[in-house]
Amino acid sequence: MEFKLTEEMEDIRKLARDFAEKKLLPTVKDRDENEIFDREIFNQMGKLGLMGIPYAEKYNGCGLDFISFAIACEEISRVDPSTGIGFEVHTSLCSWPINQYGTEDQKSKYLSKLTTGEWLGAFGLTEPNAGTDALNGATTAVKQGDEYILNGTKIFNTNGGEAEVEIIFAATDKTKGAKGMSAFIVEKGTPGLSFGKKEVKMGIRASVQREVILQDVHVPAANLLGKEGEGFKIAMQTLDGGRVGVAAQALGIAEGAYEHAVKYSKERVQFGKPISKQQAVAFRLADMKLKIEAARWLVYKAAYDMSNNISHSVSAAMAKKFASDIAMEVTTDAVQVFGGYGFTREYPVERYMRDAKITQIYEGTNEVQQMVISGSILR
Ligand code: CAA
Q: What secondary structure letter does DSSP report for 227?
């Protein structure tokens, strides 16, 4: 057993870190304050090969694994968690199910453009009355000839309205419960597909979450992903992977806030010495670092399981819950280290604290992760 990243993984870390520090850092504050979604960022990430890290070269991906992807997610989120989630949803929630369940035609048509960043991806599962209870959605798909007609509304859709490709989940037969949901690849621009309210949020303000409205949207039957009735399984398996990405995002958020806190503690002088020399601050920093390192290995282990086709529902749930909880704790501690300044917009730690909160909620609330973990213990 080796606790060591490969050279390729270190190269991805360097690539993502350089990009984050050179391209994201200069504008991150402005984009957060003014809620600016900048598509050009994803175009540039595509050119660097970051938008298709875990997918085959045949589909223009890098042919690497999910640990490399998690590291990239961590590094992007260490500087800019808003870009982190757009990147994560694109790679995990939209590209993964196409890679896993897509036909050859679907992969060459969609995955090959998602991996280059030419097209951006989104994932439409959540509805006004179906959040945690994801099976309870009201969106329907009715087969007519060689098409499905989709009707319904999705909410909190990350990249919604910006993405060229949406994975939409809809009931093809409500009476069949989990076996009555199907997944569809829906292209932006399809008549009847429109986008409603853009959410105004506490954090990740430079990412977009929009309402997706489907009114008699005609989707070719060729765009059914997997088989009819496999949609819920596809959604759950996709989210198992997505949770690894959110865990990596949370890890990056904690690291970003922690590094700012360490730096500030060495510069800020009170009672004639840097506050880092006060044991109350030094011990707080020690605990922050400890939590980050513990989270790191849960995140990389879940990504390792995913890369090696080891069942990762539980390891992903553990990583997501732990990393998001410590992200909230570490960012709150970082604000505390900064004192009154930490509460102002002058320093970035308040932004990290606002951004951390959603990692405890999306891609399955942490209570859902407890359901998954306890279910595996008590089965
Ligand atoms: N892999 C494969 N199959 C799975 C599965 C998994 N991980 N989890 C469940 N299933 C299967 C079950 O085996 C079962 O199949 P059978 O009927 O054949 O036995 C079927 O799915 C139903 O499972 P459950 O009875 O467990 O389903 P449930 O209705 O009780 O729901 C739940 C379970 C865990 C609460 C689930 O609904 C869930 O994960 N909810 C949270 C949804 C979620 O994460 N939403 C996030 C939206 S995306 C987002 O946040 C995007 C963004 O913007 C960032």
A: S
